[in-house]
Amino acid sequence: MPQLHRTPAPVAEPTAPTGRPAYQKFDVVARKSGIDGFGAFAAEAIPPHRKIGEIRGESISVSEARRRAAGKARIMIVEVSEKKAIDASQSSDPMRFTNHSCAPNARLQIRDGRVEFYAVQPIAVGEEITVNYGETHHEGTLACRCGAPGCIGWL
Ligand SMILES: [Zn+2]
């Protein structure tokens, strides 16, 4: 008597929703920004105080970072200590496109050599994610175009 074989029901694979790395907690995409160049935009709603993601990249010395940054208007280097910096130029992390705003909706946190981003208010789908860069290598010589009412005007 022939045996009946039933095709097993497909089992949902436990895959990450978008294949992003585990340290990128929310979906963020790089798009042209009204502020400057490309920006990082939320592709899903982000609640306040949640970690959004990180920038990872090449670990270099601060002196090498300053050499690489010299004369450039746009850089993707973050100093993570007095000696070390992360150059994310070759990284695929979308957070590396995060622009400065004088009225940001996120904040940058340097912890244990890591460059982390946290939401400070609810961020809607399609909203550009911004942080206050604080002190930058531009040392107040680059015009800020963030458009925030309290814009200090310079980076
Ligand atoms: Zn500004």
UniProtKB/TrEMBL annotation:
Residue ranges of domain SET in the record: 26-134
Keyword Transferase set for record: yes
GO cellular component: chromosome
UniProt xrefs under PROSITE patterns: SET (PS50280)
Keyword hit for Calcium: no
PANTHER family: SET DOMAIN PROTEINS (PTHR22884)
Official protein name in the record: SET domain-containing protein-lysine N-methyltransferase
